[in-house]
Amino acid sequence: MNRPTKIVCVGRNYLEHARELGNQVPERPLLFLKPPSSIVREGEAIVLPAASDRVEHEGEIAVVIGRTARGVKAADAWDHVAGIAPLNDVTARDLQKTDGQWTRAKGFDTFCPIGATLPLAQVADRGALEVICRVNGQVRQHGRVSEMAFDIPMLIEYISGVMTLEPGDVIATGTPAGVGPLQPGDVVEVEIPGVGTLTNPVQAP
Ligand code: MG
Predict the structure, then answer these.
(1) d(CA 80, ligand 1 centre) in Å
(2) Is the pLDDT of residue 96 over 60?
(3) In 41, 71, 82, 203, which residue has its Cα 20 to 30 A from 151's Cα atom?
(4) How far apart are CA 121 and CA 55, in angstroms?
(5) Which residues surround the ion ligand 1 when the cut-off is CB under 5 Å?
């Protein structure tokens, strides 16, 4: 996979998750960015920053762009996708609330574990994709693409109408309900059944 020029994330794309944090699903996709410097890969540690007292997991389905996408219509969106990967949108929840802007809360080094990309041609059923997040083997989150407020083709149309998506760029499509804190020594897994599992240990500052 090319190193992404950007990681475009979607906030509050699952109704139950929006509700659990006291929010509503927005009228339009709510976008933010994570820096490429936050990426870690399979097995690498999520390092808890000293600046935060509450770092949480957000298991997500990531879409990896395969062809430059600018002003793409939803009907053509899948033509621009290389594949699907599990992703953890690690978030300093306390800083997200106090900062207002999410750049710091979402942007610490190690806050974007991404697993191996499964090529789209090998994804059995795009309409049945699910994501499961476990901490120390216990299921914390379980969501399905059918539960998204804005589905993947709509997200590609919306985002590519704002910014050009380059090959290797990543879209994190939002997290289902069940987000919760991470402690040093925890092991977090994000599994997309039929695609793969991403496993990362959690370390103290
Ligand atoms: Mg997220």
Answers:
(1) 22
(2) yes
(3) 41
(4) 35
(5) 58, 89, 175
